[in-house]
Specification:
There is one protein chain. By secondary structure, the protein is α/β, with parallel strands linked by helices. The chain has one domain (52-239): Uracil-DNA glycosylase-like domain (Uracil-DNA Glycosylase, subunit E, 3-Layer(aba) Sandwich), CATH 3.40.470.10. Helix content is 43%, strand content 9%. It has 9 helices and 5 strands. The chain has helices spanning 8-18, 50-65, 99-104, 111-122, 148-165, 175-182, 188-191, 209-214, 219-243, and strands at residues 90-94, 131-134, 169-173, 196-198, 201-206. It has a 5-stranded mixed β-sheet with strand order 2-1-3-5-4, sandwiched between helices. A hairpin with a 2-residue loop joins strand 4 and strand 5 (201-206). The chain is globular, with a radius of gyration of 18 Å. The two termini are 19 Å apart.
Amino acid sequence: MGRPRPPVADWLAYLGEIGYGEIYRRATGHAAIPEEVAPPVAVPEPSPADAGREEALAELAGRVAVCTACVLSETRNRTVFGTGPLGARLMVIGEGPGAEEDRQGLPFVGRAGELLTKILLAIGLTREEVYIANIVKCRPPGNRAPEPAEVAACIGYLERQIEIIRPTLLVALGKTAAQVLLGTNGSLAELRGPWYEYRGVPLKVTYHPAALLRNPALKRPTWEDMQEVRDRLARDSRQPEEES
């Protein structure tokens, strides 16, 4: 049985906190919030077969914790491996840890993390149902973008995380994550919109929550992107049942 669906009023409150004071319609004519608001996405129960994957994830986290493959290891306080359940159907990927993440060793725990939590709630997911990771596992000094050599030293960890977690969908948060995963120098405005694939997993590009804090006008396009993520998760979760 899925978890109870929160009342519509609660979802509208979340949207209001994110910055959507009005309910509007897409250009296609589909309501931004359909009658069934943000249907819950089922997370599979762990099985005995998952034990090996849990072990593999723990072993990978141990390798990251002692990694010195690039210069970021010299200035970090803690590595930030990632958090979320083994059965997560959605995996969101940011650029790298900030100051608060570096202090706590957890991804997205600052103001941008609070906003990410609200965005996920608005599409019917709690943070605990989503796997959250970054391109690099150590904080770049001054929160600068990671250098190509730093990305090259770290990307293998993310690739292995994706292999172990086996998410249904990926979301790249921000320009750096999108450019790295898609192997392009395109702007975020150019990369938003289409569905892509990364290592065989469908990928959607949207703005980083930190950008939304700086520019509230980006909240609306981000909500458009996340509705597509919500709808695809819901559609994909129904397909096995419909085909049986």
